[in-house]
Amino acid sequence: MSKKRLMIISLIVSVILLCVKFLAYFLTHSNAILTDAVESIVNVAAGSFALFGIYYASKPADEDHPYGHGKIEFFSSGFEGGMITIAGIGMMAKGVLAFFQKDEVHSIDLGIYLSVAAGSINYFVGFFIMKKGKAGHSDLMIASGKHLISDAISSVGLVIGLALVYFTNIIWIDYAVAVLFGGYITFSGFRILKESVFNLLDQADHDKIDHVISILNKNRGDNWIDIHNLRILKYGSVLHVDCHVTLPWYNNLQQTHDEIDAIEKLVSKESTHDIEFFIHADPCLPISCAICQVKNCPERKHEFVKRLTWGLDNVLPDRKHQL
What we know:
The protein is mostly helical. The protein has two domains: 198 residues, Alpha-lytic protease prodomain-like (Up-down Bundle); 110 residues, Cation efflux protein, cytoplasmic domain (Alpha-Beta Plaits, 2-Layer Sandwich), CATH 3.30.70.1350. It is built from nine helices and three strands. The protein has a three-stranded mixed beta sheet, covered by helices on one side. A hairpin with a 2-residue loop joins strand 1 and strand 2. Helix 1 runs antiparallel to helix 2 and helix 3 runs parallel beside helix 5. The longest helix has 30 residues. The radius of gyration is 27 Å and the shape is elongated.
């Protein structure tokens, strides 16, 4: 199933659940259910923006956007996180005010049934979207899935709170649950917002860098004397990789091209991401001889000493490797 079609289904489900939750509120007048219903408005708004983000991110690169349109996913997930945070703050405020207004709650059993149904649907839809998002490396889909799952988790607390009100007839429990839900939703929204901001600022993703380095370590060619100044930028589901590779200085242009092409094909084959490479070739220097594994090198100035294991400490800095 395509990302676009999956997000359309998610949006339709969100609209249906929005109607169900507001029906539950009008039947019960529960502030806790109202907070859940208000979050569903956020779900619909965020889902609409996410659908646009998926559409826009799928557009190919052009002259105005040479790296593609994938970063819209980070902006969209940030928009979603911001809306969730604002909604959560509003829910907490409404719950606090309810302590002074003393709203009457009734038909709690019906509210429980509707909340269980809505929460279950949210969980399964959110889990499926997040699973597909991880498989497709879509931060936007992952954020949407996490949002729906957090909504489902809050529904569990909502049902517990309503059940306590039903069996104890202590109405203020409903208000307290509303405040707790608001706090949990605010925290979830802020976490999504923070991740999207970090992605927009191109914060280094050491997990992805480590994965690329491990591929290169396991399949290292003898002529790849070192790889340094490695940087990975995320453009939606596409990774843009910049690096320098040190090669024998006496290789001709065709040989250098073949080595760079081999690196690109190797990482692309072993990685689940779509990857775009920009690799700069550096000539080796005499200081490289001690770590150079080229056999029968006609220009060797020093004996080979040992093979260096590549890691974050020597692949990220912009300098050739040496002992």
